[in-house]
Specification:
Blueprint: H1 6-18, H2 33-45, H3 48-59, E1 72-73, H4 86-101, E2 105-110, H5 137-152, E3 158-162, H6 167-176, E4 187-191, E5 194-196, E6 198-199, E7 206-208, E8 211-212, E9 214-216, H7 222-228, H8 231-238, E10 242-247, H9 258-266, E11 271-277, E12 287-291, E13 294-298, H10 305-308, E14 321-330, H11 331-339, E15 346-351, E16 355-356, E17 363-364, E18 371-376, E19 390-392, H12 395-398, H13 411-428, E20 444-446, E21 472-474
Parallel strand pairs: 2-3, 2-10, 3-4, 11-19, 20-21
Antiparallel strand pairs: 1-12, 5-9, 6-18, 7-8, 10-14, 11-14, 12-13, 15-18, 16-17
Helix pairs in contact: 4-9, 7-11
Length: about 475
Amino acid sequence: MNTDLKPRHDRAMQTLQVHGQEHLLTFFNDLDDTAAGALLDEIEARDWAHLQRLIETYVLKRPEAHVPEHPEPAPCYPVAPTPDRVEKYTRARALGEQLLREGKVAAFVVAGGQGTRLGFDGPKGAYPATPVNGKPLFQVFADYLLKIAEKYGKPVPWYVMTSGLNHQPTVDFFKQHNHFGLNPDDVMFFTQGTMPSIGYDGRVLLAERGMLALNPDGHGGSLRALHVSGALEDMTRRGVEQISYFQVDNPNVKCIDPLFLGLHALDGAQMSSKMVLKTGPHEKVGNFAEVDGRIVVIEYSDLPDALAEAKQPDGTLKFNAGSIAIHAISRAFVEQLNAGGFSLPFHRADKKVAHIDLSTGQRIEPTEPNAVKLEAFVFDALPLAEKSIVLQTDRVEEFAPIKNATGVDSAETSRRLQSERAARWLEAKGVTIPRCKDGMVDAHIELSHRTAVEADDLDNLELPDRIEPGSERVL
């Protein structure tokens, strides 16, 4: 052992022994100085007393689902305004557009995932997503931000949260594509935090002899990462007041929505959300509810059947507002949370985690779940907001996620939804769209965000009279 490292090793061993984690130094003497120093850095950076409490709460015991008492449906603004709200929607849209013209809005995408589940080797944001040209997700969003900058005369700074696994490949991907036409100074990359992966016996796993097994701390970690990375400071320097939050797997998302941002700001909300009507009582999306005057999200897996299937007097689902991970967040709210040393609750996820066998030093690839990953969810910040609104949006207009290789929420279903949205916009402008007997679009239509981010952007453009059946068309 390097004599310079011995005092650090001894202090780390004392700390780990107190918390039953001394096995993490089993192979310390086999490591070179660089690897040994890196392992000590990681151990010293952790709050082991806090981690022990988490292990006792989430790993050694399986927490029971917590459902708030007496939840009520969350109040929601409808997609289209009721007659008494037309004027408010008009004012909200105008306010959102003013914020954009004044450069007070930033885009924030959570992009720490890999394309593994899609059979794709690389960051999920690099996945080819569009129906005809196969533009990567990152380019879809970049095109959107370029169009917004064109419409409102101000660039929208874009904050991209990666993970340790895909950070450098993501940065390289942007460089290879010249940042998709964006000014590199307006794009900031930073990594989310991590948590150790923990075996069912409560011991932290080793990914390598000198490396803890770590997992991203969930999208809830994004609010802390904004602070730690300096992104909030950068926003303050730019004069950003509102953050438009979205996740990387949804090519139909409105990265920037003036109406949503305007309603959020007009009502003085700190963190707001979009929702879609659920397809059924047990759809795998979070459920918006109101508890003690605060907006909360109840996970689909935590919502008892009696509540999931409860009906309103008109026969509709009582809890029919599904969360789609789109939020407007005040920068001041994120600063306030971080100033208070907040901590969102963790959620347990049972996973297969490759690790080093302590007796042999060999790597084990488990075939069944063997460990717990602890993740925080961003929607758990909602009840911390004194004011929060929910805006309903149309599923086709804004929710076409790519989560699975096949089936529901796959690349295939996303491309169909992208074509359907493009077809709706074109039909609204008089273009004849071919449709099958079941109403599905009989063509692959790709409408670039550089052309339009909403149907009215097609006004005064030269459009085709019709789209031919079975054709591929890019506009």
